[in-house]
Amino acid sequence: MTGYRQVQAMTNRGPMLFVHAALLAACTSPEWTSPELGALADAEDLELVMLYPRPTDGSDFRTSLEYFRELGRAPIAAADRVRLVQSLDQALRPADPQARCFWPRHALTGTTSRGRVEALICFECHTLVLPGISLPIDESGSKVIEELRVAAELPIAD
Fold it and tell me: Which residues have CB under 8 Å from 128's CB, separation 6+?
């Protein structure tokens, strides 16, 4: 149990425990702009998946990993998970109403307490898609992903 739930459980035990709980939460759980991204950081396992950016069924827009051809995948070490998700969280920006291509070349998949989760990322149109939500991001989110891709020797689609 980490973060908010941990603080909530400890605050029921008195004011001194509240101080300890708040300090613990501040050290272990960053404040996420998007809770959905926070779930990725807390995943039991996380993988970087490289994709061919056009949906395999010929459609223009798909938001599920199953519709894209996989070029390779690699596990993301626990030490890199929070750093990766923090870089994506910091890359979030205000929504931009312009048309989106959404041809993702990157995806993250992981197992959380609520089951399997996937995030598809298109750095061309600056969009990150999680189940039920589409988030605009800027190019700065690609730095850590690119470091991990190169270290794992994963290919990238042209």
Answer: 88, 92, 119, 120, 121, 122, 134, 135, 136, 137, 141
pLDDT given at position 49: 96
Q: Where are the domains of the chain?
A: 1-30, 32-151
Predicted TM-score (pTM) of the model is: 0.73
Assign residue 3 a region: left if phi > 0, alpha if psi is -120 to 50, beta otherwise?
A: left
d(CA 110, CA 113): 10
Burial degree of 80 (CB within 10 A; 0-12, 13-18, 19+): middle
Alpha-carbon gap, residue 110 to 130, rounded angstroms: 12
Q: Who has greater pLDDT, 42 or 70?
A: 70
Look at residue 61 and tell me whether its pLDDT is greater than 90: no
Alpha carbon of residue 37 to chain centroid:
5
Side chain identity at residue 45, one-letter code: D
Q: Over 70: is that where the pLDDT of 17 sits?
A: no
Handedness of CA 67, 56, 46, 105 (dihedral sign): negative
CATH 3.40.50 fits 32-151, yes or no: no
